[in-house]
Structure formats: structure tokens, C-alpha cells
Design goal:
CATH architecture of the largest domain: Alpha-Beta Barrel
Helix content: 40-55%
CATH superfamily of the largest domain: Queuine tRNA-ribosyltransferase-like
Strand content: 15-25%
Shape: globular
Strand order of the largest sheet: 4-13-12-11-10-9-6-5
Mean pLDDT: 95
Radius of gyration: 20 Å
Largest sheet: 8 strands, parallel
Distance between the termini: 41 Å
Structural class: alpha/beta
């Protein structure tokens, strides 16, 4: 399905965007999704512990799957034989596939040696066999997966990379983007370009301008989800990239899912986000709740409850009284505590439902605030909490 972004309203004080991502299939039928939007991640063609129906009930629109993992198992050929990723995983909404780059670069041992002009050498995390991923191969895999949005294959430099390294990395990423675009053959699939450049204003500007010149269906801001990267650098990367991206194209911040980062990203003009954090936190017994906390370093992070803690053993209240998710409507902290302490999979399912719904509900609130030109007040209330 071909994608189009429609900007409907910008908040008068902050410039935050409310809009729609509109997908049109070859028969002219449309699917429309409001932004800002959070996209759950289904790495291996499944959002962990949840059925497609449960993900839908959380209010999800677009979901993600991972090119690298599906390349290894079950292979793109199997997915293609199944009729594409939608048929294979029984998801009737849009699917975005990443390029596999993030996983590949984390697996490359010697960055200088394993990253070549042609592609990246690395070893499979499953069986240790030698693998080689190129821009052409990444696009070929995504064409076979038949996702609605495919991502260009880019270099994912470490957060510690110096400016000289980043400059060379951007040049390589641009060359790879051209190569990937040249072999992209799925006419019903949209191809997004990725902006890199670390926390440097001139590099981000240059990367954004040159990527836009290549003419993609949408644009992503990459290199911001590194564990070593501080939030200030993340916000700088967004601020330095967004002004040079087209107003009539989707703006996607890759791998970001903390509530505070969603809000700060929207404030800076981002439309869509993704992250594995809501289901990962759930599997460890953590539930997202309203409010913020400060780390020892002074960073602002999401507030959460660890339902494994003994204090919840006899707490017969929902995770959040005001939450409208299935979990909060039907189950108590005491029951969730029991499930997690007994390692019951149903506990991870219930917490995943809550966490995904929590982030989607946050984007719904942001949409309403933007439509009413009240996003600045929304941010103020969020931090006061």
C-alpha cells in the first residue's frame, strides 16, 4: 500500500504536528491512522506474548518486524511463499520492516574491518555462520517480506563515534541509500530514507538535505537509540534534522519509546515512534504508570511499578485506576504479582497489554492537546506529575 502523510494541524506554541498517515492499496481502498503514533515492535513476526487481536485492541496501527531476524528464521522465501508478512503473521494493518542494520552492526566485531563499502560482515547469533549483508540484500529481503514500509540500509555508528568517523559514515550511508533505492522493485512498498549525523548540527543538516534529494516516501531520524547516548544528544539530533525534512512526509524517530522521549520528540516535529521497551519491561514484571522519575545521573525517565515486589502481594487495585486497557479493567496488582512470581506467561501478556496501551494512550492524549493548541500546557502538566 502506498503511503501519504497529511498534516492537519500544528500546535501554535510548539509546532507539534497532528496528522494522518494514509495507506492506499492498488484497488484504491484506504487505511488512515492518526499521528503522533506509537508502533509496537513484532521483531520475529509477532509482538511478544500477544496475539494480533490483542495488539489491535490496544489501539495499534502500524507495527514493526525485523529484517535481520526474519532473514535467518524462517527466511524471506518462506514468508514469500506464505503470501507475505501480513498473511504469515495474520496482521491486516500496515507493517514496517527495519533494514537489519542495527542488529548487524551490533554483531560486527571489528567495526573498521567488518564494515566495507560493499556491506557488513558478521556472524549469525543463532549458529555462528559467516554472513554478509549489503544494501541490495536488505532491500531484496524486504521486498520478499512485502511490508508496507521498508527502511534503507544505513550504517549505525556507535554513540561514541567522533565527528570524522560520522562524516565518513554519512557518506557511506548515502551511497548505500542510492544502491538500495536502485534495486527496490516492490511497487506497493514504500521506501524510507534515514538521517544520521550524531549530535552535530552541520552533519545532521547535510545528511537530511542529501537524503531528501534522493526522494524517499518518508524519512527517519536514526542513531538516537544508543544505550550510551544521553538525552540531550538525542534531542539535538531531532532538532538538527527535522527542519530539513519535507512537511508532507512522515517523520519517524527510530527505536524510541520512553514516554518523556515521545513527548519531547513530538514537541520537535516527529510523527511516529517505535520501541521494544513496553513488552521487554512487561516480561521483567514492570508496568508503566503516569509520572516521571529521576535517575542518579539526573536523567528524567518513565515511572514504573515492579509487580514482582512483595508490596503488591495483597494489593487488589488495578495497575492504574484511570487506564482503559483490558488488564486494568479486569485484573489486580496482587494477581499480576502472583503470575510474575510464578513465572506464568500470562503475566507478561497482561503487562504487555497495559504497557503498549499506556504508550498508545499517551499519543492519543498528545493528539488532542495539539488539536486544541494546548500541547505546551500538556508538557507542563506531564513534568509536574
Amino acid at each position: 500500500m502506498k503511503v501519504k502523510y497529511e498534516l492537519i494541524h500544528q500546535d501554535k506554541k510548539t509546532g507539534a504536528r497532528y496528522g494522518k498517515v494514509i495507506f492506499t492499496d492498488k484497488n484504491g481502498e484506504k487505511q488512515e491512522y492518526e499521528t503522533p503514533m506509537f508502533m509496537p515492535v513484532g521483531t520475529q513476526a509477532t509482538v511478544k506474548t500477544l496475539s494480533p487481536e490483542q495488539v489491535k485492541e490496544c489501539g495499534a496501527g502500524i507495527i514493526l518486524s525485523n529484517t535481520y531476524h526474519l532473514w535467518l528464521r524462517p527466511t524471506p522465501e518462506i514468508v514469500e511463499q506464505a503470501g507475505g508478512l501480513h498473511q504469515f503473521m495474520n496482521w491486516n494493518g500496515p507493517i514496517l520492516t527495519d533494514s537489519g542494520g542495527y542488529q548487524v552492526f551490533s554483531l560486527a566485531r571489528n567495526k573498521k574491518k567488518d564494515i566495507t563499502e560493499e556491506g557488513v560482515h558478521f556472524k549469525s547469533e543463532i549458529d555462528g555462520r559467516a554472513l554478509f549483508l549489503t544494501p541490495e540484500k536488505s532491500i531484496e529481503i524486504q521486498n520478499k517480506l512485502d511490508s508496507d514500509i521498508a527502511m534503507s540500509f544505513d550504517e549505525c555508528p556507535p554513540a561514541t563515534a567522533d565527528k570524522a568517523y560520522l562524516k565518513n559514515s554519512i557518506e557511506r550511508t548515502l551511497r548505500w541509500a542510492k544502491r538500495g533505492k536502485a534495486v527496490h522493485q516492490n511497487q506497493e512498498q514504500n521506501l524510507f530514507g534515514i538521517v544520521q549525523g550524531g549530535p552535530y548540527e552541520d552533519l545532521r543538516k547535510w545528511s537530511a538535505i542529501e537524503t531528501v534529494k534522493l526522494g524517499f516516501d518518508g524519512y527517519a531520524i536514526g542513531g538516537v537509540a544508543n544505550d550510551d547516548e544521553c538525552k540531550d544528544d538525542m534531542y539535538k539530533a531531532i532538532e538538527y534534522s527535522v527542519p530539513y525534512l519535507p512537511e508532507d512526509k512522515v517523520r519517524y524517530l527510530m527505536g524510541v519509546g520512553e514516554p518523556v522521549d515521545l513527548i519531547e520528540g513530538v514537541k520537535r516535529g516527529v510523527d511516529i515512534f517505535d520501541c521494544v521497551s513496553p513488552t521487554r519491561l512487561a516480561r521483567h514484571g514492570n508496568a508503566l504508570i503516569s509520572g516521571i522519575r529521576k535517575t542518579e545521573k539526573g536523567d528524567i525517565k518513565e515511572k514504573r511499578l515492579n509487580l514482582k515486589n512483595a508490596q503488591f502481594k495483597a494489593d487488589f487495585t488495578p495497575v492504574e485506576e484511570t487506564c482503559d486497557c483490558y488488564t486494568c479493567k479486569n485484573y489486580t496488582k496482587a494477581y499480576l504479582h502472583h503470575l510474575m512470581r510464578c513465572d506464568e506467561a500470562f503475566g507478561a501478556t497482561l503487562l504487555s497489554i497495559h504497557n503498549i496501551r499506556f504508550l498508545i494512550r499517551l499519543t492519543e492524549k498528545m493528539r488532542e492537546a495539539i488539536k486544541n493548541d494546548a500541547f505546551a500546557e500538556f508538557i507542563e502538566e506531564f513534568y509536574e506529575a
